[in-house]
Design goal:
Oligomer: single chain
CATH architecture of the largest domain: 3-Layer(aba) Sandwich
Largest sheet: 6 strands, mixed
Shape: elongated
Mean pLDDT: 90
CATH superfamily of the largest domain: Alpha/Beta hydrolase fold, catalytic domain
């Protein structure tokens, strides 16, 4: 007579074996899907660079290149400083309209759109200095009229404070105030706001193709 404990142990081993096989299949599928995501994003990014070349020019800002798009002619030179997470494209047709009467420069901050990554800290002082370097290297002189939207308003004010002799005017569009973080912190804490994902997590989501595939949900 077969011992019941032997039967139970045999059945248990078979179940564990099946579960292990299932787990390995799931892990393999996850690795394959993730790998395909990284491959897809690499191909899609390379294709986008080919299909959508920079409309402006890349100019040395001090160790890396900024993308500057200059339109129109004459003084003053209007510098458009976009908001947080925005690019030169965010201004839509505004530069073309302004270019009918003045020189207009829209640009992408380091790491955005067509601009290269910067090795320096992304502080306001560095961002302002590098923009000024790029303008000088591109042969785009002042006087400048700074137009800053949201976070760009802070950079526009700092540019004006840093190079006051080169700025003729300042236009602020829903500009973020300097004490914005201090005033909004208690409000966000009261709402249990968890904050934005870390830079490393956002980079992983981008490189894996997740942001491209699920942009409506993730963004």
């Amino acid at each position: 007579m077969i011992n019941s404990s032997i039967i139970k142990n045999s059945a248990s081993r078979k179940l564990r074996s099946k579960l292990m096989k299932l787990l390995l299949i799931l892990i393999s599928a996850a690795v394959l899907i993730t790998g395909l995501g990284f491959l897809y994003e690499a191909i899609a990014s390379a294709s986008a660079k080919k299909d959508y070349p920079a409309p402006g020019k890349l100019v040395d800002a001090g160790g890396y290149n900024l993308h500057l798009l200059q339109q129109g002619a004459g003084a003053p030179t209007i510098i458009l400083e976009a908001g947080s997470g925005e690019t030169s494209l965010s201004w839509r047709n505004i530069p073309e309209q302004l270019a009918e009467t003045a020189t207009v420069v829209s640009y992408d901050r380091a790491g955005y759109a067509w601009s290269e990554q910067a090795d320096t800290e992304r502080s306001g002082a560095n961002i302002v200095r590098e923009l000024h370097n790029a303008l000088q290297n591109a042969g785009i002189p002042g006087p400048y009229l700074l137009v800053g939207h949201s976070l760009g308003g802070m950079y526009a004010r700092l540019f004006t404070q840093t190079y006051p002799e080169e700025v003729t005017g300042l236009v602020l569009i829903d500009a973020r105030p300097e004490n914005d973080d201090r005033e909004t912190k208690p409000i966000l804490e009261a709402e249990n706001y968890a904050g934005n994902p870390s830079t490393s997590m956002l980079s992983l989501l981008k490189r894996s193709g997740a942001l491209r595939l699920f942009q409506n949900q993730l963004l």
